[in-house]
Amino acid sequence: MNVSFTKKQEEYISNQIESGDFQNASEVVRDALRLHEVYRHRVIQDLKAEIEKGWNDKSSSRSVKDIIQAKKNKINNV
Q1: Among 7, 34, 27, 35, CA closest to 19
Q2: What's the pLDDT score for residue 11?
Q3: How confident is the model over 36-45, as pLDDT tens digits?
Q4: Could you give the angle at the alpha carbon of 73 between the alpha carbons of 56 and 59, nearest 5°?
Q5: d(CA 74, CA 31)
Q6: 22 with 34: CB under 8 angstroms?
Q7: Which residue numbers in the chain have pLDDT < 70?
Q8: pTM of the model
Q9: Looking at residue 1, what is its pLDDT?
Q10: Belongs to which family (predicted)?
Q11: In 10 A of CB 28, how many CB atoms?
Q12: Are 50 and 56 in contact (CB under 8 A)?
């Protein structure tokens, strides 16, 4: 398998090896993939939980336009 990295990513990998935390680039990449898997799983679980809360909660009396306008107002006031 061939993988291409940006210059910034190559520098990061090199720095991790130089720090002594990893023996080689493969270890850095494997560790990054493990962390990505954990992160992705967590994000998906969090989204599923939020969707479930939405399905189980009472319906809102606000329209979609009201919700969008409230969000725009919040952004403009920040």
Answers
A1: 27
A2: 98
A3: 999 999 999 9
A4: 15
A5: 39
A6: no
A7: 78
A8: 0.63
A9: 87
A10: Belongs to the ParD antitoxin family.
A11: 19
A12: no
